[in-house]
Amino acid sequence: MSLLEVNEALPEYKRYSYSDYCTWGNDERWELLDGVPYAMSSPSRQHQEISMRLSSLIWNYLVDKPCKVFAAPFDIRLNADTYDDTVVQPDIVVVCDESKLDDKGGVGAPDMVIEILSQSTAILDKVLKFRKYQTAGVSEYWTIDPDSKSLSVNILDNGKYTAYAYGSNDTVPVHILEGCVIDLAKVFA
User: Fold this and answer.
1) Per-residue model confidence as pLDDT tens digits over 15-58
2) How deeply is 132 buried, as exposed, middle or buried, from its count of CB atoms within 10 A (0-12, 13-18, 19+)?
3) Which of 11, 37, 161, 169 could cross-link to 154 by cystine, CB 3.0-4.6 Å?
4) Region of residue 166 (left: phi > 0; alpha: psi -120 to 50; beta: else)
């Protein structure tokens, strides 16, 4: 749901930028895609449990390694070098290039993004953000469906994603992290 549908307090439609985004209060969470704001609802308990388990597994793997894992809320400015009108807050993000981090979050395409689907965000995550992450050059994009206990892994190859599907009892290699394998039974426990 876009900000325009739920919040009449803002002026009539215009294309917003990161500088506008920074002026919005901290009492609500927003994402900005091509200048259009989208309200973010609070995650469910199931969503949070999956996020914590998965980010912990990745965190433990990354001890003493150069890559960093971050959990939402963590701003990623996908096109900070151009229009600066796209700010996302993925559920989990991995950044391996420290020059893509600043005091406010991530700048440019992270190496990996993980979104945990909900009924209110599934279309946004699977269509709009999918395109934004692909275009920005995110190497690995995961979408997790808590209801079906399934995972879609998208690997960037020549500018396009190739998709792989996994079920709740599968083990999944993290392509950007050599040797890292995620046991989905632990994630969906």
Assistant:
1) 899 999 999 987 888 999 999 999 998 899 999 999 999 999 99
2) buried
3) 161
4) beta
- Assigned token pair, 74: 């963590």
Report how many domains make up the chain: 1
> Which region holds residue 49: left if phi is over 0, alpha if psi is between -120 and 50, else beta?
alpha
CA nearest neighbour of 137 among 90, 181, 78: 78
Contact by Cβ (8 Å): 167, 150: yes
DSSP sequence for 90-131: -SEEEE--GGGEETTEEES--SEEEEE--TTTHHIIIIIHHH
Quick check: 87 and 58 in contact, CB under 8 A? no
* 26 Rama sector, left if φ>0, alpha if ψ -120 to 50, beta otherwise: alpha
The CATH number linked to 23 is 3.90.1570.10
Burial (0-12, 13-18, 19+ Cβ within 10 Å), 143: buried
Work out the burial of residue 184: count CB atoms within 10 Å of its CB; fewer than 13 is exposed, 13-18 middle, 19 or more buried.
Answer: buried
Q: Give the domain range for residue 151.
A: 3-187
**Exposed/middle/buried for residue 150 (C-beta within 10 Å: 0-12, 13-18, 19+):** middle
Report pTM: 0.91
